[in-house]
Design brief:
Blueprint lengths: L2 H14 L2 H7 L4 H15 L4 E3 L3 E4 L1 H25 L7 E7 L4 H14 L3 E7 L2 H9 L5 E5 L10 E16 L9 E2 L3 E2 H4 L4 E4 L4 H12 L8 E3 L2 H10 L3 E5 H6 L6 E7 L4 E9 L6 H10 L2 H10 L6
Parallel strand pairs: 3-4, 3-5, 7-12, 8-12, 9-10, 9-11
Antiparallel strand pairs: 1-2, 5-13, 6-11, 6-12, 6-13
Helix pairs in contact: 1-2, 1-3, 1-4, 2-3, 5-12
């Protein structure tokens, strides 16, 4: 039995919650995955997975084995990167994720990191806040970009690198296109914005709870015209239709080339949200993660954050 491979299959099963999809993700057949898990159970003398007509979850003992599997795979990746990297030339994979509205910032960060260190292969993923926090907890993510105000919600201890204080804007079609780039217009109150047909993220997204609370604080209730879990839809709904969207500065900065749009700062109340990178505390970093954390502290990256997020200069 290849213990490390079997542990990888177990982690995939927990992630996909389905034997067939887990096998597909591991590029093996379903019987091969099932046989490997049975060999793992024989090795430790416990039942790991509850089996019925479909996958029914892990047993208590299976959860303990899973936690060890996650640590083993993480340490294996750290070791491989240490062996393959040369001094000053880190290499290896780096799994990163961001909440949807922060994906422009993470994409810029990944591009800059890969430019500085061509041996690093960043994976850039979009996740809800809960998925992001679970990824950090299970060590399936190396680095996450999200709402640092939520760090206390899990038992796992996280370390944060604050990046920006996000402000919110109403994105709408301009009465007439600007000469060059999207225009930052005059402020608008949340109560007035609530009267517009709005495209908003779905209620399971933390951003939506922030937006809904702002509308409630302004004494307004909103029934969205469109709901989506895609930030691309937030923008294209405005470009192609008759709706408006509520976006943080990082998302507005990503569509600055759309001169037919305008963004109005939302006030009364003025809502601000701290955004930051997070890792699990006390975990030995890989060479790729060390390089990423070093990049966070450079003036070059801080200039990018200031330019492409926050309140945005008009």
């Amino acid at each position: 039995m290849n213990l490390l491979a079997s542990m990888r299959y177990l982690v995939a099963l927990d992630e996909h919650r389905h034997f067939g999809r887990a096998a597909q993700a591991c590029h093996i057949t379903q019987p091969a995955l099932s046989n490997a898990l049975r060999a793992l159970e024989a090795e430790y003398g416990v039942v790991i997975a509850r089996r019925g007509r479909t996958y029914a979850g892990l047993t208590h003992e299976g959860e303990l084995v899973l936690a060890t599997a996650q640590r083993m795979l993480r340490e294996s990746e750290v070791l491989q990167q240490a062996l393959r990297s040369e001094e000053g030339r880190p290499c290896g994979h780096l799994r990163m994720a961001a909440v949807p509205t922060a994906i422009p910032m993470l994409s810029r960060f990944a591009a800059l990191l890969q430019q500085r260190h061509p041996g690093i292969v960043p994976a850039v993923l979009t996740m809800s806040s809960q998925e992001l926090e679970t990824g950090l907890e299970t060590l399936s993510l190396d680095l996450a970009l999200g709402y640092i105000e939520r760090m206390h919600l899990r038992d796992v201890k996280l370390e944060a690198w604050p990046q920006s204080i996000e402000h919110y804007f109403l994105l709408r079609r301009a009465a007439r296109p600007a000469a060059d780039t999207l225009r930052i217009g005059q402020p608008i109150g949340w109560a007035e914005a609530a009267l517009q047909p709005l495209c908003l993220l779905t209620p399971d997204m933390h951003n939506r709870s922030i937006v809904d609370q702002a509308f409630r604080s302004a004494g307004a209730t909103v029934t969205p015209a469109i709901e989506t879990n895609s930030v691309l839809t937030l923008v294209l709904g405005v470009v192609a239709g008759e709706v408006c969207s509520v976006l943080p500065g990082a998302m507005v900065a990503a569509v600055r080339s759309q001169r037919e749009l305008e963004a109005l700062p939302l006030v009364a109340p003025e809502v601000t949200t701290p955004i930051g990178f997070m890792t699990q505390q006390g975990v030995r970093p890989s060479r790729a993660l060390e390089a990423a954390l070093a990049l966070l502290r450079t003036p070059q990256w801080q200039a990018q954050v200031e330019m492409h997020s926050g309140a945005l200069a008009a």
